[in-house]
Amino acid sequence: MLDKEGIKKIIPQREPFLMIDEVESFTPGESATAYKYVDSKEPYFKGHFPDNPVMPGVLIVESLAQTGAIAILSMEENKGKNALFGGINKLKFKKVVRPGDKLKLEVKIINRKGPIGIGEAKATVEGEIACKGELTFAIVDNNE
Questions:
Q1: Domain map of the chain by residue range?
Q2: DSSP class per residue in 23-66
């Protein structure tokens, strides 16, 4: 289990854009499972939407991407690097995510070739799929 401080030792994102709260498990280069505790105090809920707060889909995808980055950037050869989006494929949103939800984030790396890879990503709330799809990433040095 990794808390936020442990997460920060692997991925470069920081508040307010660190979108995962804890990592339940990870296998370097293979998979990661993390959680986002969706809090009503997060600033985007003021405008998305004032009378009907919904976590923006792009932030769910970013949460999944950061979870995948835990799996990839925890590999010895990728320490100190960054994982950037290379593409999003077959992505579907199935359930609205609201304040108070515990968003479970699961990413399995299904393909890697050099600095490019694909992760099969799934976000769920209480076992119901909120979002799933494939995320393509590129590993780069932090100054690129």
A1: 4-141
A2: EEEEETTTEEEEEEE--TTSGGGGTS-TTS----HHHHHHHHHH
46-60 pLDDT tens trace: 999 999 999 999 999
To the question of pTM greater than 0.85 for the whole model, the response is: yes
**Catalytic residue chosen out of the listed positions 12, 13, 24, 48:** 48
| Per-residue pLDDT at 91 exceeds 80 | yes
| Catalytic (active site) residue 48 | yes
| Residue 57 token pair | 């889909």
Give me the half-sphere count of Cα atoms (radius 13 Å) on the Cβ side of residue 124.
8
Residue corresponding to tokens 């769910």? 60
Distance CA 92, CA 81 (A): 29
Give CA separation, 21 vs 3, 48, 110, 122, in Å: 7, 21, 24, 16
CATH of domain 4-141: 3.10.129.10
